[in-house]
Amino acid sequence: MNAYLLILRFLHVVGGFLWAGSTFFIVAFGLPAIRAAGPGGQDFMRALTQRTRYSLAMGIAGGVTVAAGVLLYGYDSAWFRSGWAASGMGITLGIGGLAGIAAYAVGALVVARASVHLGALGQLIAAGGGPPTPEQAAQIGALQGRIVRGTQWNAALMAVAVIAMGIARYVRF
């Protein structure tokens, strides 16, 4: 195996491990704990997303994972010119890859956008010096719901990707 493939596989596996593992942790343990903690949970989530580089790290890990995966799939399929893509392994990796790409899109287009809007709304409320207006509270609830649902979709899509990557070499048609 050449250095190019080793580097791509390393980036794909480590990036996927960080990206999917963090998402699975948030969905399985973080969100229930945040809900149970009430306002303190919201403070934790705000600190995680606004005072650390968590969101940036997830974006980079997801982007690196997807980019390396596309390059690996392209290499393995001779850039879509071989029959390999129609094999059991090729189809399974293709399904997993599409699920990973979809997860990245949901993260960027739903979760990240809603997080940015939520952060801006929080700053606006803080600048006002008082509690949120009923309209702002409704916006906060809607944005939080979008983030939770997007994160849950991310986890489901990543589960498909992880399972596909794990079983692909054993799939025969």
- Total domain units: 1
Distance between the termini: 26 Å
Q: Structural class of the helices, strands and pairings?
A: mainly alpha
Low-confidence stretches: none
Approximate strand percentage: under 5%
Order of helix and strand elements from N to C terminus: HHHHH
Give the arrangement of secondary structure elements:
Layout: H1 3-37, H2 39-50, H3 54-76, H4 88-128, H5 134-167
Concise structural overview:
The protein is mostly helical and 173 residues long.
Describe this structure in words.
The chain has helices at residues 3-37, 39-50, 54-76, 88-128, 134-167. It has 173 residues and is mainly α. It has one domain (3-170). The longest helix has 41 residues, at 88-128. It is elongated, with a radius of gyration of 19 Å. The two termini are 26 Å apart. The mean pLDDT is 92.
Question: What would the keywords be for this entry?
Answer:
mainly alpha
